[in-house]
């Protein structure tokens, strides 16, 4: 999919913020440990993706009621929904100088009802002209997201006939609608009621 940078400055996709807090010691320590076990940008990006996908359960799968939104909190609590897990992966990528941003799909349940936004990550590795989308949501039966730069292996393919959408925008910071839902929800049931249905 052709992504459209919402900020034309590539350096914006390396910046830190309150949600993408890659200056935080825990983010730095995690990034350094992953880098030391890999040693190059491609292997590091894949390791960071698999770390977030596999060691931080999606709270809907684990039953965790807590709501995390800062990258450092996601890493410390090992908990988060797709938006939060995406914040953690973007922070880990940026911590090692890999441009990364946030992008979104509009997805429904199995019957195509209850459309809500789903969060993804896009990254651009050295020597590549294009951004590549990956989905650190976490695998489960029926979901098999993989790290793949040329052929997308996302958790959920879009079903246009059900009104689902791949949004082309690539954001350097969490979209305000998703961040508001995370910050204003006391627990996951409240978050489920607050999930945004559009950008």
Automatic annotation (TrEMBL):
Ranges of residues in domain Transglutaminase-like: 31-136
InterPro entries: Papain-like_cys_pep_sf, Transglutaminase-like
Origin superkingdom: Bacteria
Protein name from the UniProt record: Transglutaminase
Record organism: Streptomyces katrae
